[in-house]
Amino acid sequence: MRYGTGAALVMAAALLWSLQGLAFRQIEAADPWAILFWRSLGMLPVLALFIAVRGRGRLVAAILGAGRDGVIGGLGLIFAFGGAVYAIQSTTIANAVFLFAASPFLTALLAWAVLGERVPARTWASIGVAALGIAVMVWGGLDRGALAGNLAALSSAAGFAVFTVTLRRGGIRDPLPGVVLGGVFSMIAAAAMTGLAGGTLAVTLPDAGWSLGMGAVTLAGGMVLYTLGSRAVPAAELTLFTMLEVMLAPFWVWLVLGETASRATLAGGLVILAAMALSAIRPRRGAAVPGAPA
Prior knowledge:
Number of helices: 13
Oligomer: single chain
Number of strands: 0
Radius of gyration: 18 Å
């Protein structure tokens, strides 16, 4: 695959992911646990079909190949998916997605603590800048009653960090079987929490449609495009391309629904974006061809 094709696929994935906030705002009555259940259900067939086609029908073998680390990573996705749903339901889209963007920095810290991976000085500087942006946003949320949503967004970022680090520890190159496990675990967790709260997973047909559509199209579809495109794009540039999601998600809800963000959210979000750019942009050495082994 050529670099240009890979970059286009990754940007298309970011575009799909950026539409999730707008889809969330169409849901009228379903609570976060019900949304998590139906969104996960919509995601699973698409990912399972992609894994089966790519692996020539060896779906079960691919999932079992994820092993213990895949299971742990899948459990981390309960917090990643559940925290994201709650955050978007509890605060503005801008607030949520800017805090989701902290995931690469939490991943670097966790990999340093658990795997002993060296963290370059540039990354430490980026983490410090991102922490400042997070502090601005969380502090601003205290006055607007969005603290719970902010904390949920950070728990989502932490869940993704756990998922990434456990797969890295196990040497698992393909994250999709772990994501399938995460979807199954999220459905189980959503059903259990709904039962404990005395609620119901039954939702209106429109709410079910939006939740299933998010899982099948924006979430799973984006992950398939990202997986394909990432094979031809260096990791640092992947970070830059996925910033498109962070920038577009607040734009769509502002354009269509008129949802705006507070000054603290915008200020903190810009600081986090600057930290991402600082981490991703590195001086090139030589004329290495962008790409990754298949």
